[in-house]
Design brief:
binds S-adenosylmethionine; alpha/beta; single chain; 14 helices
């Protein structure tokens, strides 16, 4: 039974980190054995754009790969802002160097996870979209095969996220209470657990979960189990094309990290336009450092997001610039759990 009223006693964050740790092996092996990153940079430091062009990578995969290598402490900007090897990378990851270990790392070059990540990086396409597969996880837009449109895969994926949401949602509701809010719109709300945690704190609050029809079957069941069905409306729709339901607080929880920059700017603009003056948009997500050099667990999670969806982790500065561009005034991030935090912005 999922219970959105109480936070966990112990912190599940390290367990999420162990689980996401395989992304570290995959990124490092891809950089060493498939893209020759260290060999190239040993010849001369390169600007990000030069390295990206040389590796034939699109912007999104290049950001994911380079951010992780910086978070590992293997690349660093030189005095001119070019990407350069750190002393450790120069000593241990340049083929032929006296203490080189790239052959050892090459033991994993053909491991399925590494081969899969390399394919994702090269194609810049999410997993699951081959004709024989269910479709991409967690994302729906016109022109993309989506697992969220099929009953079984939508239920499985939505319930998988309940694992994180049931831990994090009560913490978000406690650290960022909404005493003034009348209607909360949970965009791409999935299980609805974030909205439910606030409903349980604020007895007069109403909420709307806006998501795909198959996903909302799960949210409807979870709302009924929490006794909040009368205050939680499930509205099916496409957040990119349908009118945004009216609310004075809009939540985007773990949604923007599923999308590329143009879609995020569109989503934030659409939400901002729908808010009344004084209304708030809440971005609940993970945040990269503005320098794109960590934090390491977020850089690793970014690779997971990159492989499964059309997104990645973004920096606070990226979110702030999109919020300002949409006419909102962003505030400070309030940390929640599992490396997440809420960045509020007011209209
Ligand atoms: C990563 S999940 C986040 C779920 C929830 N907010 C959470 O934090 O656990 C992304 C959600 O966005 C929904 N979604 C994706 N594309 C959508 C679209 N075009 N319109 C509405 N919802 C969409 C998915 O069905 C999924 O429930």
């Amino acid at each position: 039974m999922i219970d959105a009223t109480r936070p966990p006693i112990t912190d599940p964050t390290p367990i999420f980190d162990f689980y996401r740790g395989s992304a570290g092996t995959e990124l490092l092996t891809a950089a060493v054995s498939h893209f020759g990153v260290f060999e190239r940079l040993a010849r001369a430091p390169r600007r990000f754009e030069e390295l990206r062009a040389e590796l034939h990578l699109a912007e999104r995969p290049a950001v994911v790969l380079v951010t992780a290598l910086r978070a590992f402490g293997l690349l660093t900007p030189d005095a001119e802002g070019r990407l350069a090897l750190t002393p450790q990378a120069r000593e241990h990851l340049v083929p032929g160097a006296p203490f080189d270990i790239s052959g050892y790392i090459g033991l994993s070059a053909k491991a399925p996870g590494v081969v899969e990540l390399v394919e994702r990086l090269k194609t810049n396409r999410p997993a699951g979209t081959e004709p024989s597969q269910d479709g991409a996880a967690f994302i729906y837009r016109e022109g993309l095969e989506s697992a969220m449109e099929k009953e079984q895969s939508a239920r499985m994926l939505t319930l998988s996220l309940a694992g994180r949401a049931k831990n994090v949602a009560p913490v978000l509701a406690a650290r960022y209470p909404l005493p003034e809010a009348r209607v909360l719109l949970d965009v791409g709300g999935g299980t609805g657990l974030y909205a439910i945690a606030w409903l349980l704190r604020h007895p007069t609050l109403q909420a709307i979960v806006w998501d795909r029809p198959e996903v909302l079957k799960v949210a409807t069941e979870i709302a009924a189990a929490h006794g909040v069905a009368e205050r939680l409306k499930c509205v099916p729709g496409d957040m990119f094309t349908d009118p945004v339901p009216q609310a004075d607080v809009i939540l985007l929880s773990n949604v923007l990290h599923d999308w590329d920059v143009p879609q995020n700017r569109t989503l934030i603009r659409r939400c901002a336009e729908a808010l009344p003056p004084g209304g708030s948009l809440l971005v609940h997500d993970v945040f990269l450092n503005d320098a794109f050099d960590g934090p390491l667990p977020v850089a690793l999670y970014s690779a997971v997001l990159f492989s499964l969806t059309e997104g990645r982790a973004y920096s606070t500065a990226e979110y702030r610039s999109w919020l300002r561009e949409a006419g909102l005034e962003p505030g400070e991030v309030v940390p929640t759990l599992v490396h997440c935090g809420v960045l509020p912005a007011r209209k």
